[in-house]
Design goal:
Chains A, B, C, D, E: Its main location: membrane. Chains A, B, C, D, E: This is Bestrophin. Chains A, B, C, D, E: It is a multi-pass membrane protein. The structure is a homopentamer. The first copy, chain A, is an all-alpha fold. In chain A, about 70% of the residues lie in helices and about 0% in strands. The longest helix of chain A is centred in the first third of the chain and has 49 residues. In chain A, helix 2 packs antiparallel against helix 10, helix 3 packs antiparallel against helix 5 and helix 3 packs antiparallel against helix 9. Chain A has 2 domains: about 110 residues, no CATH class; about 150 residues, no CATH class. Chains A and E meet through helix 1, helix 3, helix 9, helix 10 and helix 11 of A and helix 3, helix 7, helix 8 and helix 9 of E.
């Protein structure tokens, strides 16, 4: 993602990186050259003139506008839903951390009996391990959504045995949630968590499951191919045919007009393509690495750790 | 569903399978031939010329654009809501599995009394049977939504008696949920589930009921017929009348223009038709078989099973 | 509602019943005749010619398109929200039935003491009566939304006293929920329902209350009159004035063009009117009778009853 | 609100009250007179002719259509959200009444000990007072949203002390909720409400808090001024400039065309203004008085009262 | 935010402050001057005439209208979501205050034993401190969203130690929530909060976490840069090129027409920019200071305090 939009109006006009231009420059150049060719033939040869008139462009323009608008909205909705899901991840990891720190406690009875320090160390360790697992889950989800197989990134947050066990798992984040769930049950059975409070923690795990499922849904289900292909075809057909329709009226400025119109339509089409899957690593995709690092820092600060990794800075103008 | 859209821009332009073209090629050919006929008559006979002018096409174009846009949005919303519901099924089956594995336990008291192994085997069997029922529910819902009567697909996940009992049921998935609910009650009465935790599991069954009801709603309630028929009529009227309106201006290129415009409008209309009911087996419908197989594999992996069926691969370019 | 849309493309083009045509044929005929008159005068008298030109039609066309699109979306949203609410009713009646069957039980203690059959019969009766009340609630809500006063339809599901008591009630479905709530409290006080599980059942009654309130809201609050009247006026003004604007350009084909344009605009307007209140008995309204019968059959099947009424079949092509 | 839209198509065309016309007749008359002036000058003086052509109107028309559509949708969304919130109020007051009547009970233990009538009268009084407070809350919220300071309307539902105490309160409905909350706590401490059931009632109070906050949000936050002023300016500019653009083409009919176009645009703009704040007392605003009276009657009927005030009837065609 | 829109229609037409004009006056002046230049050259030099015709403006106009409409909707959705989140903050702070005041109590047992006043003072202090922390959280969230480092504003609501501890925190509001959570746990362990009621309070903290996360999401994730830059470019390109397209037709009035069109398009674009991030201090941004002051006054009134700060009044016509 390109961070904080603080460009002046003028600088935005001239920006290249992070815009749709790199994606569409090939087809834009081709279309403009085609328009130059058509204009040249029309001005010189004279007797070759398939005049389509502007009628079809006005008529299809409506359908195209519907389609591009629909596509824009849908792609942005996917982008924004993805962002909401990761925002939910930020919230829920904070919530589950707070719950781990406050709802896991030594039972009153045992405290009185054996003096305070009976299990307090074991409980502190348990809390820390659980919060680390939440961090590990976040990183595992990021890797899962980006199809990256870097188990070593999870090593600081899980035990070696667990990391090993994850190797055979089809869905690693879910396996981590399962193991967190087993640990919570054990804590309940040991009396560290009140029976009334276990459902509260269980509920937070369900929310994480739902958030993950939402991300997987966006990733695995593109906009139906029939939409995507029809819109690509109509945009291309429109731009390729345009010079034949306007060369009689516009004359020598045909390539300029075609270039401008093609820039608009190809641009709209290309942006839709780019943000349709927001979990990739395109310039305008969501900065999952930045967010998961921020979660890591925030949660470790809750454990009163001070040896924290730095927040990620934009590389080459982009957050990843 | 056509999986992972990784076609280059150029290949998408030329794609046939999975696009709207197969659905509309008949009416597209007819309309273009009609335009050829009108053009031929106009150029040769000369004295037969009902000139509708382009006025009505511009005026109706607006209404048509509203309608097609509305239709597109509504159909896609239905498609995406269907996907969300099945995404919710993925999430909730994972959640209910996690809950079954952690909230069903031997009560502390009995353990102490008779040593650990008293009921632990019965509980392990119970857990496995319950998770299998969740898988069976998923497959039953898929068959239910596709009006398929293949009870044999449920046999591996339910007891023979249960499969037999499902034969007379109008709504088989609901019957499976009911029987799961009875088993949970029995487990609670035996002390395997804490009274405070039973509502948590019951809540998950309610979520499954809601997800199923959502799917049934989309399946049983099409977009009102008056919408569908009006849009079909207007699109057809528009395309059939178009040659009479533009032949005076566009002349010999009339069939080309009519073909392009009809391609756009018939295409938009046909796509809406195709994804309106997303639970069918059209190329752009939701891959329920693939999803339910994935759920099966994921849940059985949670039971530490290793003898798992393979995930489904696309057949002829499509997932089912 | 017109059931399962399985008409071929061609049959849909020629359909009359269930489309918007019956609603608008009067004004459509009037408008076309007006156009015939204007054309006749213009062609013969010649010196009477108020030429409005097509300018106002293009300019207002935009505003009209906004308005019709807005109206279409809003009406459909109301229709679909109504459908969702009744879908929620299907789900919640299933859920509450499952909860009644599994959460209402004889307390462990008493079983041991007096042998099993102490209260089991009373509990079975209680469960059945409660499920019957759920069915009765569904039918009462249907009658309530359709302003039908057929108390006799509720007689099979409630006691005679209760039916009598409903006579004076302003809001009968709410009164039924209240009496269900009292019975649940009694069951809790007798120990048939665990104190922790009573909120679960109470929550389901709250969901039913919310669903009913949603239906009442749609029914009692039409789209603001200022919207409806402005759109009616603009559509009529547009169609009445159209012949004066195009007769100079289109000539003898004016009535054809006016007819087509009026068909589109009146059609869009009429459909919005029809589905704005989805709880009526118009052809495109929601089939409340069919849904509530289906609920009845489903719930009674859960009670293992076999003497079930048939599901409703379409009458004259429509479900009611 | 204008109740139940049951006007025939023809009567709707001619309606004045409750439509947007009264709001915009001034500016509509002014604009039409301006057009008459411009036409007269153009036809007679001849040499004064600033011909803007129709180009700017077509080009701005697009931006204007976006803006009016956006405004329409946003205003209606605010109207409908307001209606949903008051619908939620209807539902939640019913739910909380049902909960008060069933979850507030004399504890089993005390009944046995001292015979039944020990506290049953006190509890009946408590229930009635609580339901009256719910009614009082509804009326207080209505007065709060309409900035009306009629404390006397709350007198029948609260004690004199409470009414007195409300005088100094900035937010009276919230103060009523707070006092209900204290009473529920007292009931719990006396054993009238089970500790497990107190959160259920508390949850209903939270829902009321959320509903009230939603209403306050709509009331206190208009659509940003920059939107409202830009759309007003563009609509006015458009209509004032229109005669200069079309008088050359349309000639003597210019005032007719300008009148029609201005009617459409001013109308759309005025409706947006009217329903933007739905809690006022304009003809198309929400009938808060009617709804709160209905809530009062419904809840008192639940207390088996028979001396009920009548439901409100439309005054001069409107509900308030 | 500009408060309560009560301007007459005429005054709104002439308003400058709070409208989009200040933001765009530079580019508007430049574009109009360019049009003056083009017109002057065209009228005098005559032989320099690149006539683009109006075709490209009509064709791109469609794409532009899609884009501006999309941008408008998205920006307003962000604005309104931000408002909803702060509305949720108002609601939840009220709810959590009510819960603190009613669910934190001295346990029955201890009261009887040692007479009433045993811990009642400590509990009153605890309640007040907790409510103050809720107020402190609100102010901290405001400062956090506006990147303001004024810790001194929190001093009246937190202890000096706590304020000191906040200095090193990356996310101060979350740290405050964490400390509230610890205090609630302590209160539960002391018996001041019932074990069943702790999850109710914990749930309210989770809602606050979610609301804060939602605000952070809006703040940190702008609309993708590729959208923003494409729309800026197309609007500018359109307005700069417009005089070349219309000067042949419109002649000497070209600057007027260009000025009007540019006013519309720049205006729409500028408003989108302004409210995209609603947590700033622009005239149309959300009045976070006003809302958090109102929360402070409301909550302190619930503690029966009378020495309250005044509600904020608009400064220079704006609320902040």
């Amino acid at each position: 993602m390109v961070p904080e939009k603080r460009y002046s109006w003028l600088r935005l006009l001239l920006k290249y990186r992070g815009t749709a231009l790199p994606r569409m420059q090939g087809r834009l150049a081709f279309t403009t050259l085609l328009a130059v060719g058509v204009t040249a033939v029309d001005l010189n040869v004279r007797f070759f003139h398939p005049d389509l008139t502007t009628i079809p462009f006005t008529l299809i323009g409506l359908a195209l506008s519907i389609f591009l608008g629909f596509r824009n909205n849908t792609s942005y909705d996917r982008f924004w839903e993805g962002r909401k899901l990761w925002g939910g991840l930020v919230n829920t990891t904070r919530t589950v951390t707070r719950q781990i720190l406050t709802l896991v406690n030594e039972p009153e009875a045992r405290k009185d009996e054996a003096g305070r320090p009976a299990e307090s160390e074991a409980i502190a360790t348990f809390r820390r391990e659980m919060v680390y697992r939440v961090i590990g889950y976040t990183h595992a989800l990021r890797l899962h959504l980006r199809d990256q197989d870097r188990l070593e990134e999870l090593a600081p947050f899980l035990s070696a045995t667990e990391v090993e066990a994850l190797k055979g798992e089809l869905n690693r984040p879910i396996a981590i949630l399962q193991s967190m769930s087993f640990r919570l049950r054990d804590a309940w059975q040991r009396g560290w968590i009140h029976a009334y409070h276990l459902p509260v923690l269980e509920q937070s795990l369900s929310v994480l499951t739902d958030l993950q499922g939402g991300c997987e849904r966006i990733k695995s289900t593109p906009i139906p191919l029939s939409y995507t292909s029809l819109i690509h075809q109509l945009v291309a057909l429109y731009c390729f045919a345009l010079p034949f329709g306007i060369v009689k009226t516009v004359g020598v400025f045909t390539p300029v007009v075609v270039g401008i119109v093609a820039y608009a339509f190809y641009g709209l089409d290309a942006i839709g393509d780019e943000i349709e899957n927001p979990f990739g690593t395109d310039p305008n995709d969501l900065p999952l690495s930045t967010i998961s690092r921020m979660i890591e820092v925030n949660l470790r600060q809750r454990l009163d750790e001070t040896d924290l990794p730095p927040l990620l800075k934009p590389k080459g103008g982009n957050l990843h």
